[in-house]
Each structure stands twice: as structure tokens, then as C-alpha cells.
Amino acid sequence: MKVLRFLSQGQVHAGVLLAGGVQAFPSNDLLGMIQSGEWPAAAGPVLPLAEVTPILPYDVPPKIWCIGLNYHSHAVDINAVQPEEPGSFMKPASCMFPPAGEIVLPPPAVSNDVDAEGELAVVIGRRVKGLASLDEAHAAIFGYTTTLDLTALDVLAKNPRYLTRAKSMDTFFSFGPVIVTKDEIAEVNDLEVITEHNGAVWSRDFVRNMKHRPLELVRFHSQAMTLYPGDIISTGCPKGARIKSGDTVRARIDGVGTLGATVR
Q1: pTM of the entire structure?
Q2: Which of 10, 30, 70, 139 has minimal Cβ neighbours within 10 Å of its Cβ?
């Protein structure tokens, strides 16, 4: 199942993506359905994609975790050493922008060097704590989605302790618009994560080349804290694209989805 939220005739709906378009659920509360595990049957007409506007699957995820330097290719690109444990950090919901929306660059006095990274993210499907195995981690996952994660590189370069500020500026994160349930993905480690910049492929790598793969990231983070339905763990990027006003950037993962933005 591929689920999303969308606008149609000025109204917000949650629905399922089908071959011919989207069909709405009775409720528009996608996060609530993930939390309850109850999925009412979609009903009504199948709306052509051209007649709907996808939006964020939900506006305030319980938690947003991101993972730094998870691909060897990214570490090589910036001449950094991969951490032995996941290099995780959190982002606030206030930094989110809608799918196909605008990334608004901060004033030059705040940052003048921003990159955008296309990533695969895990969406948690049940409340869990202290998972002991990868099988348990798999059982805790609802599905997967695409993300765009941005960084003010010059802020980060001043001091690694500024990571949260460098990652949390307005319009520095988006996810969706589609969340694909885990049963749709035969082998998550075979997925290829691609970042496109101005219509060209900027970076690409396979999930299997991550230092810490998705199931391990779920297990690892559950050891320290309770994970809740709707939590997002964005698993890292092979290499980010430096962006400027007028650019376009897109995350693309075949089998999961695409997530694009323009820059101003």
C-alpha cells in the first residue's frame, strides 16, 4: 500500500495511491491511522494525479531522527571519518516544507553555503523500546519514504556542536509525499538512493552500502528511547548538492517515490 495526503478542491484528504490515481480514505488523519493500525477502506472516485496536490503525510512527526555520514562515499567526499555508532541528530518539525514546495535559503549573514540531500527514511509503525534483534526492528516498521535533508555547511564548519542549528533552519526538511508500506519493498538494502540537482543525477548509492542499515538504525535507537508510531528515521545521503536560488533538487528512490523542491 502507498499512502499519502493531498489537496483536492481545497480540502485535505488522506488516501491510497493506485495505478490510475488516488482514492481517499474516510479520514484525513494519516498519522492517526498509522498510530492506531486501523485502515478503513478507501472509497469514492479514483482521482487523477493531475487533479490533486500532494502535501506532507503529516505536519508534526513525533520525532525526526537523521543520520550523518552513513555512506562511505559521503565520508570520502567531505574527507571525514565515519563514526563507529550511528551519527544521529534530531530535527524540529518547524523546519519542514511541503513536497514540491520551496526551500527558502537563510540570509547570507546567517548562512551562505547550504546543501540538500536526498535520503531514504524509515517510518515507525508501533510503540517499541529496547528491541533486541533485526527481526523485531522489522516488525516495528510501518514503511519507507523519501526525504530532503538540508545543512548550512558554513555554520557546521564553525563548530561541530552547531549541528542542530545548521540542520534546523526553516525549510530544511521534507518527507513524502508517499509512504510505502514495508510489504511493498522486497529488500530494502537493494534500494538505490538518488539526489538530483537541476535535473541531473548528483549522487547515487545503494542502501546496502550504508555503514548502519535501516533495521539496525531502528534497533539502535530503540535501545536509548521509546519509538512511537509516525517517528521518522532518515538514513543519510551519499552526497549532498550545494544549492542556490533558482535551483531545483529532488530525492528519487525507485519503488518508494520522489520528492522535489525549488530553491529561492
Answers
A1: 0.96
A2: 10
